[in-house]
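Write out the 3D structure for:
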Amino acid sequence: MRSISEIIANLSPNIKASIIIIVFLIIFSIIVGIIAKHKDPTKPPKGFWLLIEWMVDWINGMCKENLGKDWKRYAPMMLTLAMFILLANFSGLIGLSNPTANATITIALGFISAFMIQSAAIRTNGLKNYIKSYFSPSPVMFPINLVSEIVTPFSLGMRLFGNILSGGVILSLIYNALAIIRIAGVPIGTILSVFVAPVFHAIFDIFLGAIQVYVFVLLTIIFISGKMPEEE
């Protein structure tokens, strides 16, 4: 039987990076929870704590706007997804392999979202009405309704994977072009490497990485909202 160290050694770099991010988030959440209990709520937040409160308020705001009175049920999970995807998208900046550049991991995230979507549909409509919805508006629509639900996690996962992977490919092409310029002995090649590379990292790793967090979380919330009956 293989030891734990052998199993970990055989994991792909993307899986290892995912484990590191998950462990970090667990420790980070515990520390933030301890600090929050001893923090004076009457004092305005400053520095890093202000960023934390902004992110929590941002997730809560999206959930309140789309999920109504049930927003508290889903906001913690949405925040967890957002934090994991954000750190995964930024992980390349600190030398880790980007987990969201792996289709298996992004599809797994899609299935997590799909589980929340389907559980919301069953909880709010009841199992009987949930099953009936697959035959609405006509029994002929059953195959189409079924396929649309099956496709949802793959659609969410592949959208995230495709956008992150394309950004990585573009960065690789830019680095290869800069390397060719340097090898050719063009004096400006080194200058371009110093000033151009950080700009493209800011665009593809930071800006677009943050945008993909917003898109993934918002789509999940919208899909959940679509399974809930309209509030009067």
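The CA atoms of residues 48 and 54 lie 10 Å apart.
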